[in-house]
Amino acid sequence: MVVGARSDDDSATDAGAAYILFMNADGTVKANQKISALSGGFNETLLEKNYFGYGVAGIEDYNNDDIPDIAVSAPNSTNIALYIIHLNRDGTVKSYVKNTNFSSDYKFQIYNIIGKQIYESRITSQETNVDISNYASGLYFLVSKMNEEIKTFKIVKE
């Protein structure tokens, strides 16, 4: 599980962090690994009020190494980015990709398990939130379209 801590002060005030939580079967936390400018092998400079961890999501195994990966946003206007973070098994950072090219031409859709589109929106800023609290439990697919590049992410709503 990944949890954002956007106001963490590791390297600067409100620089932010994300935590990888390793869970026990009963839902309690067994262990955690912090990811920030000073922890977890994340070698990125985070600025004051970067708010790294403002938005977080598990994105399955994006780099095909059998370890789930995460997406983490940092919406500060001077260092705006969406990070795709590839993890090691212990929750530390193996590698990451910093995405900074955001255009209003970008869009995404959410599809249910039978392939019916149930939501569509344009990405107008680095931080785009979608409330899925009213969706039924199940499997969904988020398809992002950025210029000619199409990426699909699996969402499991419990």
Automatic annotation (TrEMBL):
Superkingdom to which the source organism belongs: Bacteria
Alphabetical list of SMART domains matching this protein: Int_alpha
InterPro entries: FG-GAP, Int_alpha_beta-p, Integrin_alpha_N, Secre_tail
NCBIfam families referenced in this protein's UniProt entry, alphabetically: Por_Secre_tail
Keyword tags: Glycoprotein, Repeat, Signal
Residue ranges constituting the Secretion system C-terminal sorting domain according to the UniProt record: 98-155
Protein name per the record: Secretion system C-terminal sorting domain-containing protein
